[in-house]
Design a protein that fits this description.
Strand order of the largest sheet: 1-2
Radius of gyration: 20 Å
Distance between the termini: 32 Å
Shape: globular
Number of helices: 6
Helix content: 40-55%
Largest sheet: 2 strands, antiparallel
Number of strands: 4
Length: 189
């Protein structure tokens, strides 16, 4: 790796990988992607009980937790406003939310959950907790805390590298509804 492309830090980068002997099954990135894929699959299955798809529960949760505009939800979910609008169309058609133009700024579209939407959204954290706890079966409290610290360190190192390289924002992880068009996507959590 060119020294101009690597971030300057007090600790040199480790050499855990060797390009001549690289194996995807031992790749942290590949294993994280597989971990996320199986987590998303299990979340989607459990969200069916709430009559939500994998991409519908996500904005509903953000709105429930205080995100009250289309633009704000799109930012939170790292997706574009068009994809967010299409998703919100589906949630509105299900009677879970309402949209209203701001009276002070017509460009802003405010979001609010309906009573039914609030009831459904309140159940989402419980489903998330149950599925995540199943994925963490056999972990001790110390291992769980260490996993969180290690993942955060991995993220921080990646962010530092991207900043040092002046890298453009990376690709957004896409989770697509079954039967949805390819451009109707959002990110997984």
């Amino acid at each position: 790796m060119d020294s101009a492309a690597s971030p300057r830090s007090p600790d040199p980068a480790p050499s855990f990988y060797d390009g001549t002997q690289y194996c995807k099954d031992q790749s942290v990135g590949f294993l994280m992607k597989r971990s996320l894929a199986v987590l998303v699959r299990n979340l989607e299955h459990q969200m069916q009980a709430l009559d939500l798809t994998g991409t519908q529960w996500h904005p509903l949760l953000h709105i429930h937790q205080g995100c009250d505009t289309v633009a704000g939800c799109a930012r939170e979910m790292q997706t574009d406003a068009g994809a967010m609008t299409r998703m919100l169309d589906r949630l509105e058609a299900k009677g879970l939310l309402v949209r209203e133009r701001s009276s002070s700024d017509r460009r802003v579209v405010n979001l609010a959950l309906t009573p039914r939407g609030a009831e459904v959204a309140a159940q989402i954290p419980h489903v998330l907790a149950a599925v995540l706890n199943e994925h963490l079966r056999g972990f001790s409290a110390e291992e769980f805390a260490q996993l969180l610290r290690l993942l955060q360190r991995f993220i921080d190192n990646g962010e530092a590298l991207a900043e040092a390289n002046q890298a453009a924002p990376g690709p957004v992880l896409v989770v697509q509804e079954l039967g949805a068009q390819t451009d109707d996507t959002t990110t997984a959590e």
